Amino acid sequence: MDLEGLEVEEREREDFAGYKLRPTLIVYARSEEDVVRVVKYARERRIPLVPWGAGTSLTGATSCEGCILLDLSKMDKILEINDVDWYVRVQPGVNLARLNEELERKGFFLPPDPASSFLCSVGGAVVEGSGGMRAVKYGSFKEWVLAVRVVLADGTAVKLGEPLRKNRAGYDLVHLMVGSEGTLGVLTEAWLRITPLPRKKVITVMAFLRDSEAAANVILGLRKARVLPEFSEYMDVDVIKALNRHLSAGLKESEGGVLLIAVEEDQLDDVLNVVKVNSQELVMAEGEEAEKLYSLRAQAAIALKAEAAGAKFLAEDVVVPVSKLPEAMMKLKQMETKYGVRMPVIAHIGDGNLHPNIMVREDASATQLFEEVARMAVEMGGSVTGEHGVGVQKVNVMREQVLRSNGERVLSLMLGIKRLFDPEGILNPGKYVEAAAASRRLT
Amino acid sequence: MDLEGLEVEEREREDFAGYKLRPTLIVYARSEEDVVRVVKYARERRIPLVPWGAGTSLTGATSCEGCILLDLSKMDKILEINDVDWYVRVQPGVNLARLNEELERKGFFLPPDPASSFLCSVGGAVVEGSGGMRAVKYGSFKEWVLAVRVVLADGTAVKLGEPLRKNRAGYDLVHLMVGSEGTLGVLTEAWLRITPLPRKKVITVMAFLRDSEAAANVILGLRKARVLPEFSEYMDVDVIKALNRHLSAGLKESEGGVLLIAVEEDQLDDVLNVVKVNSQELVMAEGEEAEKLYSLRAQAAIALKAEAAGAKFLAEDVVVPVSKLPEAMMKLKQMETKYGVRMPVIAHIGDGNLHPNIMVREDASATQLFEEVARMAVEMGGSVTGEHGVGVQKVNVMREQVLRSNGERVLSLMLGIKRLFDPEGILNPGKYVEAAAASRRLT
Lengths: 443, 443
Prior knowledge:
Mean pLDDT of chain A: 95
Helix content of chain A: 25-40%
Number of domains of chain A: 3
Number of strands of chain A: 22
Largest interface: A-B, 91 and 91 residues
Oligomer: homodimer
Distance between the termini of chain A: 34 Å
Radius of gyration of chain A: 22 Å
CATH architecture of the largest domain in chain A: 2-Layer Sandwich
């Protein structure tokens, strides 16, 4: 097995989060056959193989030292949009925003929307089990992947599952691949469920909040009123300032930050009732105006990246039970003070998914703060990662969570699955589950 | 390890589908500790252990010859209804209809509704990955299980997952348990997602159809109009007759059968446009009247059971892509004629999930017909089971499907997972994946 005829490259790369990649070789795949060849090549030579979609992992999932980097960005075809069976079949390299544009033309959408839609690949979103801005109503990618094709570690290409919402023929291997972070197989195709665009008028409420407790109070109020929003996003005052500074957003810099809550018209009164008492100022938007607000929120991470001015910053991704939001938001403020570092918070607050961003170069105290935030989530019955995954960044805290909340046997079962799918340790080795089970500290 | 102090029984049982169970011993568990004791007891003595919820499996999932039958029906507590974090925590023996009554009192529901809700246990629905009448909009149990507690084959009790909609800390073992049919662990607790009851007015349209092509045409028409119904159910004329005969339903015995389609008010016109041209008669209902129709549909299997007059009948559970419905419905009619047996069809037709019921005692030709129906589904890119699972009934056809559609490696990976979780083959052995991989023919 050699790589003749395949497009290869020898150079270093850096991903969106600033992780350095030093592959032995970058190989571009244009078909599943190419993937099979590269996997077999890597396996014969026992070289770690790391799949790359668009490089937007925030946890170093594609980090690589002496690996073969398998670049799937040129496998970017939308193979089928089925408007009767309501699925789309795609190659992994398709850009997620582009996919949704195509779907919208036919009256459909694929709801989960990592704020990086305009950058990320569908394949990355699938294997990372990405979530994002509409998960509060529609769930994360976990709930939208029907079936996949993967190349296994021995070079066998297989299909897992069927493009059907109901299929009970065998154990659910599809959901093992969702969130496998390239460690169990290389994704070459996915069938994703699609659904009609909402028929009802959706209204976006932008609420500039009085104080730091307001955001959590609003979300609890909405839960009690049984409001099911399309999305409910939060940015604190530091994030607003970064948006104003770097993207000329022109948003009011209210002390308590800003909430963006979109709901169908018949739930609007309930939202306003809850929001009004907690806000300094309210704006309501629909149509294009609402889309502008949504895309501003989507660019918050870009604004923070600009704010970091080239320095790497640590993006947290913890989840706390919604009922624990008031306590969690308070504790984050306390930690910011205790460590004396800025930690602007972006949040999919409606589902308790918080992204405090530690705005310092990685060092001992940043790592300590990072772990303290994660530990808080675990102690509250939450999770150290809602959607970014584990990669190398969250190995220790994932280990802590699983040991504390699930038990050591569970970690060893996960490792058993890795060994079952990849006995020789070829696929993205030494990270995620494998690393967490080995208890090695990675940076 | 002994069973002192546990409630035990020595007798035979029959499940809802008529499978005979001849356990060495029936043990009633009242707590997770009891389950741990029984699993350890079985393991020490190498006796197969079969968990029992309410005995409503249709595939012989709890069949047992010389097993220890672990009866979980007395673990029937609703442990927590959390109306802020939107989950319910239950023991496996809770009746599903009872659970939904409790939830409704607080303004919530757990949408997936196997037509056997009034009989089945939540635990059974989870480990079978049950679907039912609202899956067309809300999906099956797969989409509603957040986390579980299970007792593993070595007697270790663990939690898998977290009661959070977003959690990416590790491989998804929760979805391995959903649909594991008691072969990977014994479920002792589940956290299930709940959602607010619909706010909008829902209207049920009952359409008595002109001819046998009408049902499929209506569903295709609804798909093209991008209508997303609450449910869309079908019963053919033989099912109507059984309902009239045994439950005095008083339904019109229209040649093309009857559709029950429920939609939010703003989609009603689209439904009527599609339905009218295909129907002899239309009835519209809401509120209590609609509930009566829904519960009539839920009792269709009971009516067929009465029709069978004590004889066992074969309940199919195939899925075809919605786009293949016209062809599938036609082929079912042809097979009925070819074999000269009655095969009344109940269907969650909106998601292509068909239940032709072969109304003869099991014999060679019934088995042949059963397999022909399943094969048709596989050839159409469908599945041999949408929601009933595999048990012993569908071992051969599941094997065919996986070999044909997924590949032999996939079957061996599934078997690898069984061995990983249950190396000594204690948990519900010799069925489902294990049997399909071994290619033994079970009856």
